[in-house]
Amino acid sequence: MIYSQDYARSIEDVRVIVKHAKLDHKNLTNTAQAIYYPQEAEGHDLGGIKLLEVDDHILQAVENGAEVCFKGALNEKVVFCTESRTYEVKEAEISNSLLLVQNLKLAQATSRSPIKSPKSGVNTSMDSSMEEEGDEAVVDTIDEVERKDVVKIFHDYFELRQVRPKYRKIIDLLRLTRYAGPENEHLIDRSLLFRFNQLLDTVQCSKEEFHEGLKKYRAIEVEDRIRMLDIEYEYRVMTLLLALISENSWDRDEIDKEISLESMQGIVPYEVIDGIFDVYTTPSERVPGRYCYREDLVGALFAEKLLQHGLKFHIDEFLVTWQESLPEGFEVNEQYLRGIGIIDREGTVPCVRGLNEADLPMNLLVRLNTLFRTKERWNLEQIEPYIECFATPTVGVTSILAKYTRSLVVKGVRMYVSKH
């Protein structure tokens, strides 16, 4: 390796090195490539290039010209995002130095030998000379030296690992400005409101996952700003919408969107009612052009309304109250409490209490301590919604629990308890 930028290696220099290295000229091609280390010159930033290890998904995105980006604020770990996936970024060491050289030629490009493979056209002069040492074929030796400059020497690279989208920032930012109706907008600091692209640039997830996150937390766009709804206001609007089912004698899967929105004129702003309708409904499979309310979301909203003040209910009383609050045709299901409430049948009195996943700490160990203070023993189905945000495609919830908790089997059911 040459460090002096004033010196250029000659053909004679190369031949001397070949002789000292005891290399056979018959195994070498015509062109030698002399490697030169770059100097720290103005305009040549040696630290401006980083190696990034990518999988097939990222490689395809780059080759197709799709948008990829890094995201992360000052106090956050950086993530790498494609249009649909989020990756954790870690710095890893390379065991050997790796040189980045522009326009470096491979073996076949450095030879003028006429010996070619009849099928692929790949230069086989080296293989031929090794296999047919007795032949008298003429093999050209080195007669040209090309200069090749090293752009950078790498000792590390960025390693990417796919992770779940980090939605917590959506909640933390939008909670500050919950929408509680136009009559309460004068209480909102407008400087704290976010447009769609502003929030997307801030939240550590891909664009596709970001859309899913907005649906998950029932955020809608009001006056060109993304807003979460105040639970009392959301409950009130949904009660009015659901009342239209009986008023119009609709079946659950034949909801008319146009009539629903028209009925709310003068009561709820159009943008709000339109956004809420889109969140809580899906297209009807039976009646084209009509919609069906999602029972899971409606059930979860009414359950959250009952549990929001931290009250503890006897399980039977809660199920009865919950069922009575729902419109006719909707049925309660304990699965609808996922991530917003827990059922404790192991205690002296079986009960239900509110526990919203969005309110828990984002540090895994602190979150586990909080969970086990709330409830001593958990089965997988109960604890999963509170832990799954820490899982990855390769490390699932059960692996996390195996590492950070103790497990025991009670009446044939595996339960998880605090490790300490």
Automatic annotation (TrEMBL):
Keywords: DNA replication. It holds the Pfam family Dcc1. Residues 112-135 are annotated as: Disordered. GO terms for cellular component: chromatin; chromosome, centromeric region; Ctf18 RFC-like complex. GO terms for biological process: DNA replication; maintenance of mitotic sister chromatid cohesion. Belongs to the DCC1 family. This is Sister chromatid cohesion protein DCC1. Residues 112-124 have a biased composition (Polar residues). It comes from the Eukaryota. InterPro entries: Dcc1.
